Amino acid sequence: MKLFPSLVPCLLLAVAAFGVSAAAAQEANPNANQDASQDQDARAHFRRAIEQFNEENFDAALAEFQRAYAIDPANAILYNIARVYAGQGNAVEAARNYERYLRDGGPDLLPERRAEVEAALETQRSRIGHIEVVVSVDGATIAIDGADVATSPLYEPLAVSAGTVDIEVRAPNHTDVRRRVTVAGGSVERVVIEMQEAVQPGILRIESEVPGVVIEIDGRHVGETPLNASISLPIGDHRVVARRVGYRPFEQDFHTSQNSRAEIVLEMRPDPFAAAEDLGVLVLGLPDADYEARIDGQAMNQAGLRTLPAGRHRLELEVDDRLPFRGTVNVEGGAETEFTPPLEWTAAARQERLDSAASRESIGIGMTVGGVVVGLLGVSIAAWNESQIGETDAALREAQDEIDMACYMAAGTRDCLAANAAGEAIQADIERQQVIRGVSWALGITGIVSLAVGLVLWLEAPDEDDIDEAARARVDVVPLEGGMMVASTIRL
Q1: How far is the first Cα of the chain from the last one, in angstroms, to the nearest whole number?
Q2: What gap in Å lies between CA 389 and CA 376, rounded to an integer?
Q3: Contact partners, residue 45, CB within 8 Å, separation at least 6
Q4: Run of H or E residues at 284
Q5: Alpha-carbon distance 366 to 411, whole Å?
Q6: CA 73 to CA 39: how far, in whole Å?
Q7: CA 61 to CA 74: how far, in whole Å?
Q8: How far is CA 143 from CA 136, 156, 166, in A?
Q9: What is the value of pTM for the model shown?
Q10: Cβ neighbours of residue 261 under 8 Å, at least 6 residues apart?
Q11: How far apart, in Å, are the Cα atoms of 425 and each of 270, 381, 396, 422?
C-alpha cells in the first residue's frame, strides 16, 4: 500500500516553514549567509527524503528527514517522520512523533489538520502493545529487537509495536536469555525471565619448545604447536596427547574445575628408535664470530643432538655484533639441511663498519691522488735531471780535452791548473745529478706504490650491501661435535 500521496501537502507546509524561517533570519540579520546556507541544506535533505519515501526506501527517508529536522527543526517535518515510522511498522515511534507534532504545533494547526493527525495517532496507538518484563536479577540489560531499551527492574511495561518481538536479557556472570513474544495491539504480555549463573569453563594453555607437535584432547584434534590461544574445556577429567614423528608421544591426564586455569608444558623427547628417514642433520652457516645456538630450547652442543627429527624446529641464535635471530628451520628427513640465518648487524656494529669503510675509502682516494702527484713529480724531476746529465757529460768531455792539451807539455802551469779546476767542478755536478736521479726514481716508485695501494683500498672498500652481507657471510662448512656444522668466514 502506497503511503506517500499524503506527503505532498506536508511538503508544501515544510517548504513554507523553511521559507518563513529563512525570511525571519534575513530580517533579523541581513548578512546571515550561514543561516541561508543551512536553510538550503535542510531543503535538499527534505526533498531527498520525499524521493526516498515515494520509492518506499523508508530507512533512507527517515535518515534524510531527521537530518533536515536537525538543521532546521520545522514542525511539519515531525509529521513526515511519523509517517515514515508508520510505513516501517514502528507504531511506537510513529505515535511519539505524531504526539510531538500536535504538541509543538499547538493553536497554529488548522482544525482539519489537527483532526487528521489525531486520527492517524489513534490508528498507531491501536497498534501498540506492552510487555511487562520481570527479571530475577537486578541490573540486567533488556534489549528489544536487538536494541537495548531498559535495565531491570522495570517499573512499567515496555511499549512495543504489535507483532512478534525478540527479547534478550543480559547480566554479568549470567547466561544470556532470549525469548520471542507475540504481542497484540492494546494488550499487555507478561514475560518472566529467570537468569542462571554462567558456569565458566576451565582454561588450558599448552606450551612447547618444539613446533609442529599435533595436540589431541580427549581424542579430539585441537591444533599444532605453537598454540596461540588458550583452550576452553568443560569441568571434569581430561587427557592430552601430543605426537610428532621422531619424538616419543607425550601423554598427561588433568582435571578442570570452574574458572580454573592450567598450563601443560610438553616434554618432547627424541625417539631413539626413530627410522633413519625420519631424522636429518642441520648444517648451520654462521660467520666467524662467537655465538650461542639453541634449537627447540636446547643448546646445540649438547649430547643427543647429533641428529634432529625431520620437520620444523625453532632456532635461536646469539652472534657477536649481530641482532638475535629467532626463527624456524625445516630439517629434511634422511639428508643434510643447510641453512644460513639472515643475520643482521646491530646498529652500533653496522655503523662502526660503515665508518671504517668510509675511512678506508677516503685513505684510498688520498693515497691514489698522492701517488699520482708524487709519481708525476718524480718523472718530471727525472726527465729534467737526465737532460742536465747529458749536458754535463758533454761538458766533461770538453774539459778533459782542455786538460790534456794544457797539461800535456807543462803540468802545473796556470792553464793546466785552471783546466783541472773546471774539470773538478763538472765532476761535482755529475755527482749531484746522480743523487737527484736516485731521488727522482725513489719518488716515482713511491708514487706507483702509493697509487697501487690507494686503488686497492679505494676500489676494494666494502659498500653497504657488502657490509650487510658480511653479517651472515660464510665459507667452508666445518662439522663440529654435537651434530651441528658451522661455517667460518673473514670478519669485516
Answers
A1: 86
A2: 20
A3: 64, 65, 67, 68, 71
A4: strand 279-284
A5: 61
A6: 10
A7: 16
A8: 16, 15, 8
A9: 0.49
A10: 202, 203, 204, 205
A11: 97, 22, 9, 5
In whole angstroms, give the CA distance from residue 180 to residue 186: 18
- Torsion sign (Cα): 59, 64, 66, 67: positive
Of 151, 79, 139, whose CA–CA distance to 109 is shortest?
Answer: 79
How many angstroms separate the CA atoms of 291 and 289, rounded? 6
- Phi, psi for residue 203 in degrees, rounded to 5: -115, 130
Contact 335, 280 (CB under 8 A): yes
CA 244 from chain centre, in angstroms, equals 33
In degrees, rounded to 5, the angle at the alpha carbon of residue 201 between the alpha carbons of residues 200 and 202 is: 125
Backbone φ, ψ for residue 375 (5° rounding): -60, -45
**Residues in contact with 452: Cβ distance below 8 Å, sequence separation at least 6, in sequence order:** 371
Query: For residue 5, what are the CA distances in angstroms to 62, 101, 298?
Result: 17, 19, 82
Q: What is the C-alpha to C-alpha distance for residues 194 and 174, in angstroms, rounded to an integer?
A: 10
**Taking the CB of residue 26, how many other CB atoms lie within 10 A of it?**
15
Separation of alpha carbons 283 and 339, rounded Å: 6
Q: What is the mean pLDDT of each run of 10 residues along the chain (492 residues)?
A: 42 42 36 67 90 91 92 91 92 92 90 91 92 92 92 92 92 90 92 85 89 93 90 89 94 87 91 90 82 84 62 90 91 87 90 89 89 86 81 75 67 69 76 82 86 85 84 54 39 28
